[in-house]
Give the backbone structure.
Amino acid sequence: MKVLVIGSGGREHALLWRLAQSPSVTEVYAIPGNDGMSNVAHLIPLKGHEDILDFARLMKVDLTVAGPETVLTEGLADEFEAQGLPFFGPSKAAARIEGSKGFAKNLMKKYDIPTAAYEVFTDEDKAVEYLKNNRKYPIVIKADGLAAGKGVIIAQSEEEAIDSVKDMLEGHSFGGAGRSVVIEEFMEGEEASVLCFCDGTHVVPMVSSQDHKRIFDNDKGPNTGGMGAYAPAPVMTDEMMDEVKVKILRPIMAAMKKEGYPFKGCLYAGLMITDEGPKVVEFNCRFGDPETEAVLPLFDGDLAQVMLECVHGNLKKEDVKWKKGCAVDVVMASEGYPGS
Ligand code: AMP
Ligand code: GLY
């Protein structure tokens, strides 16, 4: 089959590299890709949904996979589906699980999925009043919208919290992503990422991984989109993974189906393993970066086939197999990151 991956980063390179090894795959394309991928994929310098759709239709692409969340929250999956073109990734409605933190939190509350206690605010005075009545610091302030993993402030004091809320609601930080804010309880524990194959009904987790978010060694400096990852994450024992399936993964799949926007594609559960058990930090509607670069080398099967099963709603657990061992990746970033 012919496979197309949309995106240009390390995550997309890992996807292309693994897809190129699928026994069922004959051709691999990247839009737009980057020069480092030219040994595994044909690079197609296109952008814009229309051009991507035309390419997939004309080339008779059998499977398209989206890397970044933006094309998903913009509804590219719906456009592919409308033309009968197989696409691995959620609909616009389902992608709100990442696109709006308020939406995701409300869904988790409704279906009793463990996560940090929270409130959503659009009114600055109400948010400030809430913070003045709060006695527990640190507290977490999140811009409600896509901010490339950088719209989160862990405020150590009331003053810092109020400043962050004002900044986000008045639109100084994180661009347009800050029109409403989520203020939530700080969860103590170790983090782990669980990426999952989903077909709208069934969910099969991949090996766990752990992303390291601080810019400097020894967990110092500001949070980034991730400076490196390894898989599997030792904190995610078999027993813990079973608990995650029962309390988090199956309930969220069932909830999204029941609400009328079943999730197909890769669901990313960012978890905090607390003394009270696993809790959701966030859901993403796509593969993680840099987690994917550590997870996919351990995948042992026909990735394109598994993705097509997700598209067609007949995901089979037996087809998702893993190698023993572990993998690690390290990110090189420009000086100044995560600033400009
Ligand atoms: P998010 O964009 O929601 O994944 O948040 C980015 C990072 O902020 C997470 O990976 C955590 O390290 C941290 N974080 C977010 N929410 C919380 C929370 N409620 N408690 C503790 N840490 C958090
Ligand atoms: N590694 C964090 C993310 O992909 O959002």
User: Anything to note?
Assistant: The two ends are 40 Å apart (CA to CA).
